[in-house]
Amino acid sequence: MTLSLEGFRLPLTPFALELDVTLSAHVTAVFGPSGAGKTSLLEAVAGLRHPQRGRIVLSGRVLDDAAAGVRVPPRQRAVGYVTQDDSLFPHLSVAGNLRYGAGRGVARKAPLGEDRIVDTLGLASLLDRSPATLSGGERRRVALGRALLSTPEILLLDEPLSGLDRPLKVRVLEHLLKIKAAFPLPILYVTHEAAEVEALADEVVVLDAGHLVARGAPADVLRDGAPGRSDRHLAG
Amino acid sequence: MFELAVDLPVVWFTLRVAALAVLLLAPFGLALALLLARRRFPGKALLETLVSLPLVLPPVATGLLLLKFLGRRGPGGRAARSLFGVDVVFTWKAVVVAMMVMSLPLLVRTARVAFEEVNPRLEAVARTLGASEVRVLSTVTLPLASRGIAAGLLLAFARSLGEFGATILVAGNIPGRTTTIATAIYNDVQTGLDGSAYGLLAVSAALAFGAIFLSEVWLKRRTNA
């Protein structure tokens, strides 16, 4: 799978997100400080925002082409988008949430299998519960499962560990590693935690004020820690 | 003194036309509420003002406007005549129209708040999960706004039951044909039928209390959820 953003420009305040990049790693971390445009990038890939200029191409399929007026609606994109606040449907049970997108998307391939997803994420005992009764970590796992069950071609994760306390972070991270091992599904992983990038990502792109300031293997890019200084790697 | 009596046919007629008015108003009113809650468009402030106008305009003035509009020479009246071959003014249909117009603001304003409280991210996520707009509306937006919608419908129903000013102008007060609880009370007091007036007063007080109480309970539960 490759995700390309070609001449991509999305106006934000106070800057614009401008990218020209092709991503093809299994897990690509989108790293950078708050307000760098990371979430807006996910929203654009999910089709919730549309670029003013440029194209978004996912595995040869044009999702957006500003010049040609192409705007594939979110429901036809086959993207599994997990928002930062997990956005579970409060009026549906866990099972209802999980199955909301099952078989409804524009699956171009065989479903990943409900049993396998429920097993991988340890959701079997939660199926009859209401989202209101779940812990933060359980909510994240349900949101992940719901996205996987919609048979996505790419998983878009927006800071899936934020707001969790340390032990919960470790447990949800374990589940993310399980997902990575169990499903050959590309993942775009937004975070501002270097530790998560190192634990999970195969490649990292660093965003700052809407621009890509560094990319490469996590160990190389993160060697200096702060993304503000990583523009040095561009020259190198 | 007087003997308390309840004019049941009038009560029954009023309940039926009020229910019909709310039923006919619901699709239009909810669509309008959703439009005002979710979209930005030129002339929105004007539309908001027009929707709320019946709240503050004297009901009799609204009734006069309706009378001109629905009368034989009015555009609405002529359309009803050529399309359905019926007259509207001074019939039960005019009662329904008066109730619809007068309760529109209560439904739209209550339902709009309910729609605005539905997190748009939930709708966005539903779309990424493959849901069509119709499915998003029926499985996410409407269920999550349902308590506010129910409260709005109930308020509209209660307002319809008590409608007087617009009704009396556009539908008159024809016993057995257009007389509602409100206009009957007025009639009874004018003609000294105190027993009947107090009977209807008791009925309308009970109906109004029940409707407002229920809608308050529903609105509270929604905000606590």
Structural summary, described in words:
The complex is a heterodimer of chains A (236) and B (225). Chain A has 2 domains: 1-38 and 50-72 and 204-236, no CATH class; 88-190, Rossmann fold. Chain A contains 8 helices and 11 strands. With 236 residues, chain A is α/β, with parallel strands linked by helices. Helices cover 30% and strands 26% of the residues of chain A. Chain A has helices spanning 38-46, 94-99, 114-121, 136-149, 166-182, 194-200, 218-221, 231-235, and strands at 3-11, 16-23, 27-31, 53-58, 61-65, 70-71, 79-82, 154-158, 187-191, 203-208, 211-216. Chain B has 10 helices and no strands. Chains A and B meet through strand 7 of A and helix 6 and helix 7 of B.
Concise structural overview:
The complex is a heterodimer of chains A (236) and B (225). In chain A, 30% of the residues lie in helices and 26% in strands. Chain A has 236 residues and is α/β, with parallel strands linked by helices.
Main attributes?
heterodimer, A: about 240 residues, alpha/beta, Rossmann fold, six-stranded mixed beta sheet, five-stranded antiparallel beta sheet, 8 helices, 11 strands, disordered C terminus, B: about 220 residues, mainly alpha, MetI-like fold, 10 helices, globular
Structural class by helix and strand composition of chain A: alpha/beta
Distance between the termini of chain B: 51 Å
Per the CATH scheme, the topology name of the largest domain in chain A is Rossmann fold
Q: How many strands of chain A?
A: 11
Helix-strand blueprint:
The complex is a heterodimer of chains A (236) and B (225).
Chain A: E1 3-11, E2 16-23, E3 27-31, H1 38-46, E4 53-58, E5 61-65, E6 70-71, E7 79-82, H2 94-99, H3 114-121, H4 136-149, E8 154-158, H5 166-182, E9 187-191, H6 194-200, E10 203-208, E11 211-216, H7 218-221, H8 231-235
Parallel strand pairs in A: 3-9, 3-10, 7-8, 8-9
Antiparallel strand pairs in A: 1-2, 1-4, 4-5, 5-6, 10-11
Helix pairs in contact in A: 3-4, 4-5
Chain B: H1 8-38, H2 44-56, H3 59-70, H4 75-84, H5 92-116, H6 120-128, H7 133-161, H8 165-170, H9 181-190, H10 194-224
Helix pairs in contact in B: 1-5, 1-7, 2-5, 3-5, 5-7, 6-7, 7-10, 9-10
